Amino acid sequence: MFFQQTETNNYEIDMERVPQHIAIIMDGNGRWAKKRFLPRKAGHKAGAEALERIIEDCRDLGVKHLTVYAFSTENWKRSQEEVDAIMDLLRQYLKNYFKKFLKDDIRLNVIGDIHRLDQDIQDSILEIEDLSKDKTGLFVHIALNYGGRDELRRAITKIAAEVEQGNLKAEDITEEMISDHLDTANVPDPELVIRTSGEERISNFLLWQIAYSEFFFTDTLWPDFNRASLEEAIYYYQNRERRFGGR
Ligand code: FPP
């Protein structure tokens, strides 16, 4: 076993048992900004910077898939100013950061229904998904206009169409088939889900995929989440037993 004693904290990570897939609900940008008497969009900017660092950290630690909840189907209800600020950050992200990430062997995938996003954003997403498709270091899945129920609804619609066309019998629908019709088809389920900022809810994130995941909740606000926080979460995960319902 190869253990890594980190410089940043005392959490000893077993590098051979790092989760393959980590999913993160990045929460607390607004509170981070409020504490500093800054506008909410400054919190999202700091959150985007934290994400950039965590992507590199996940790759360095050997994580294979990272899924982050960047914009939910509910987030459209926020003020137009805040939605615009997040979309502008996303534009910058796609333009600058992923050009950089491509060099770092990082692949991009977006989950969620991207059709509601502005056309230029949709175009950049498709371009970067294509440009990065052969990268193998880390696969980053960004959830945009994503809701777990909406994802299931879209999957069921596709399966129902196959039944309607006579290509599939309703009684032959398997769990595997459902997984294969989700936005995360071919992605292993996350072993570890992290939520920052002290909230302990799932908020419609990856509802199907988290059936056997471990959860790590931390009071740290997302912009403050760093390598040490990530290692703490992985340490916590490694010290839990996963039984998948068996004994
Ligand atoms: C939750 O904090 C955060 C969001 C809804 C947006 C997440 C966005 C980012 C991390 C940055 C943008 C990243 C990309 C890729 C565009 P909150 O606003 O709910 O915080 P609060 O609960 O403290 O108000």
UniProtKB/TrEMBL annotation:
Residue sites binding substrate per the record: 28-32, 40, 44, 72-74, 76, 78, 195, 201-203
Pfam families: Prenyltransf
Glycosyltransferase in keyword set: no
GO biological process: polyprenol biosynthetic process
Annotated cofactor note: Binds 2 magnesium ions per subunit.
Gene3D superfamilies: Decaprenyl diphosphate synthase-like
Cofactor(s) this protein cannot do without: Mg(2+)
Known function: Catalyzes the condensation of isopentenyl diphosphate (IPP) with allylic pyrophosphates generating different type of terpenoids.
UniProt xrefs under HAMAP family: ISPT
Protein name: Isoprenyl transferase
Organism of derivation: Anaerotignum lactatifermentans DSM 14214
